[in-house]
Amino acid sequence: MTRLTDEIIFDFNEVVHGTYSNVIELITKSGLNKMARNEIHLAVGKPGKEGVISGMRGSCEEIIDVNLVRAHFDGKIPFFISHNNVVLTPGIEGRLSSEYFRTIFNRKKAEYTFMKPLDYIMVYDFECQCEDRDKGSASLNFNEIIEFPIVVVDVRTKAVVATF
Known about the structure:
The structure is a single chain. The protein is 8% helix and 35% strand. It is mainly beta. The chain has two domains: 2-115, ADP-ribosylation fold (Alpha-Beta Barrel), CATH 3.20.170; 120-163, no CATH class.
C-alpha cells in the first residue's frame, strides 16, 4: 500500500463506499466501521465507472461519497491506495466518522437520501470585452477576460470571508 500524501490526495476526487439499505441508518449515525477487516475499503468511483475494478460490491444499494480531502487534511486519519486501486483507511479506532460523508445515493430509488450542507460557496464574476465582427467592429478572434473577481461566502454566517 502507498500512503496518500498532500501532493496526490487531490487525484482522488470521487471516493465511495457501497453498503446496503438495512444498515444505512446505523452508518449515518456512527460512521463507517472496518468490522472484521484491517481497514475500511473505499472505491475510487461508482460501479461501472471506467477504471473502477475493485473496492465495492456491485450489488450495493447505497453509495456513500466520502470527502477524502477534508478527512485527510483534518490530519487525524491516514489513507492508503492498494495495488488494485482501492483506497483503504484504518479510520480512528476502526471508524470513519459520518462527518466526512458528502452524499448518500440510493441506487434502487435513484435519488440522494443525504446531501451534506455546504460550508462555503464561491461566487465568480466573469467580465469580458467582446466585439461583434459582423457589425464591422475591429476583428477579435477571442473574448478577452478583463476581470475575474471571486467572493467566498460562509454559508452559515452569510459573511464574506475572502475576496480576490
